[in-house]
Amino acid sequence: MPDMPFDLLNELSPKAPSRHADVRPRFTVEPQAVVPRAAEPPPALARESLRIPRVTIHAFCDSLDVAAAIESAAADRVMSRANTTVHQGGIAAAIEFYRQAPTPNLIVVESRSSAGLITELDSLAEVCDAGTKVLAVGHTNDIAFYRELMRRGISEYMLAPVQPFSLVETIAGLYGETTSSKLGRVYAFMGAKGGVGSSTVAHNVAWTIARRVSLDVIIADMDLPFGTAGLDFNVDAGVGIGEAIQDPARLDEVLLDRLLTKCGNNLSLLAAPGTLDRSYDICEGTFERLLEVAQASVPFLILDMPHLWTAWSRNMLKAADEVVLTAAPDLAGLRNTKSLIDFLKQARPNDPPPKLILNQVGMPKRPEIKPRDFAKAVQLELTACIPFDAHQFGTAANNGQMAAEITGKSAAARAFAEVSDVLTGRQPLKGRRTPSFNLSSIFGKPKR
User: To pair with 57 at 20 to 30 A between CA atoms, which of 27, 89, 196, 229?
Assistant: First the structure.
């Protein structure tokens, strides 16, 4: 067998300890058969550990089905940092391609033939650079064949047909050492239209999370010219997020900590400049570094998104772990909510649907769509309904306080507690239990 120029395609001596002993086959072994692991998407919380670094991935496929699965996986938000290219022609095309081009970080190759796959992998090894990982996709369901591939140093083997999320999970596993650190959760709050109180909801939920689970929370006010987070918390926030994105390359945990403004125990604010002395034409990837540093610093990051539709705002919605939409119960809110839900389902096919909050429910003299009908129209369950209370929210805004600080046992305060528990998946400390929120707390019990 020829010498392999890259370390993951070296033939191992049968008596030598295997360098791939820690590689866990993605199969369940049964007598004379190898059964692929189920490809059902895991629960939402399992996705928080999936991170793929900035790598280049080339795929060479033999079938249209596998090519489509790889293209679908490349569109997943977990793969947003990876640069993925899909080619047809299988391993033969890969060998010819790399005779004159350097190899990427990861090569995904498909072959319909078991004997052909072994032979072609030997030829592929001769044109690959050191350090290249190889993920093989085959149509042979045999344990001896799998062991032969592992003996040659293949990083992983997947049995066709391939499910997109299984591919994402496999690639993330290949780079587990570089992404093993615990990362915080990112929640993006956005209003279906202007004036529905999305910022108020985001601030109150962030404040509630910090109180109920006693873990650090950062609020990032993404509305650079008109952000109100500093006013809502009654703090002089300074430059905040404006300096953080001025030169993203120099942003680190030390600089981020200097730019944060404390808003109480476990809660910090990365405020918007709130000035109109310049325009805010933001490039598409400006906030990527901010997300990376903030996720590595705190357990929870709340993005208070403005009602804009730009390249960077779309990227933030796609990159967040959870998206929370706030809408008012009217026709414009219904239409915009439906559009946002359709976009998110298409852009985030392997993620849970967004959380939906109806705000300002029960406003006097305003015709409204009933919450039940609203939820049915957008085909999404409501996470919470927040009643209209001009006195409570007006007083809180004028005093720079949260709604629960004005009236701790109000329906709005209970709704914010319910949302915080749903997002974090945690119960509050000291054994407190939040009762389920229902519409009877808004409208009262029906009369006999």
Answer: 27
